Amino acid sequence: MRKVSFAEFGGPDVLQLIDAEEPHAGPGRIRIAVRAAGVNPVDWRVREGQVLGAHPIELPSGVGLDAAGVVDEVGEGVTGVEVGDRVFGEGSSTYAEFAVLGAWARMPEGLSFEEAAGYPSVVETALRVIREVGVRPGQTLLVSGASGGVGSAVLQIARDRGIKVIGTAGAANQEYLRDLGAVATTYGEGWVERVRRLGEVDAALDLAGSGVIRELVELTGAPEKVVSIADLGAPEFGVRFSGVAGSVPAALAEAADLIVRGKLHIPVEKSYALTEAAAAHVDSQAGHTRGRRVVVI
């Protein structure tokens, strides 16, 4: 089978499309014929060799955590899913023609493989950081870097829970944030004062890693009211860096429920072929994403 792999840490150029042995579903796992794989910042962070304790790897390594596809192997002890089912979930080395998943859910009706591949890690992360930052219904949450996949999910989940959101993003994404229910403002010079004019902030999330931790602490009044998923230096300010996943099966179940109820939709900004994995990483790392990017197999 074809698979994207890298044998050394480095830039996008270390990614290679290789012929590899097919993986197989062990106990408690399923294998899917991958139709699309989600592109996440963690993919290029791991490729660069950044210290991510939640994702220890050995070289050479495959790439990717999220995928959607058709079940073609069911491991020992697995129930509730059969060969031929359409599922989305999380596993390893998902930029490939076949991948093994450790967590999955049936795809909601009407959802394409490309759309489904963009949800697993994104929704798990959004649910986790909302929980960790402790924001409650009726309070205001500030989201720095709100237009990407996780931000898109946070905005919609927060709205469903009765939480007001102020979101920062580039000028081109202001209307997008408003469509998702956020009070939108731009980042850049003067952004702190712009946020202050919009009202008091009870909690804040750093989703972009753009060096704004000090300002987020200032706006919320305390470091324990801020959580980052993108700035490895956040603990220097007493801010929690959240990089360890919670329950992915529970997140997938909640994602499916939100999608079915029409409360969650994350658009696919761009799709890439397996041969374009390096370009997908370049674009992901550049930021300014609106929604999700996926690799289509």
Give the CA-CA distance, first to last residue: 11 Å
Q: What ranges have pLDDT less than 50 throughout 5 or more consecutive residues?
A: none
Main β sheet profile: 6 strands, mixed
Let me know the number of strands: 15
Question: Order of SSEs, N→C?
Answer: EEEHEEEEHHEHEHEHEHEEHEHE
- State the secondary-structure class: alpha/beta
Shape: globular
User: If helices are DSSP runs of H or I spanning 4 or more residues, what is the number of helices?
Assistant: 9
Computed CA radius of gyration, to the nearest angstrom: 19 Å
- Strand portion, in percent? 25-35%
The overall pLDDT, averaged over residues, is: 94
Provide the helix percentage.
Answer: 25-40%
In short:
The chain has 297 residues and is an alpha/beta fold. It contains 9 helices and 15 strands. The model has no long low-confidence stretch (mean pLDDT 94).
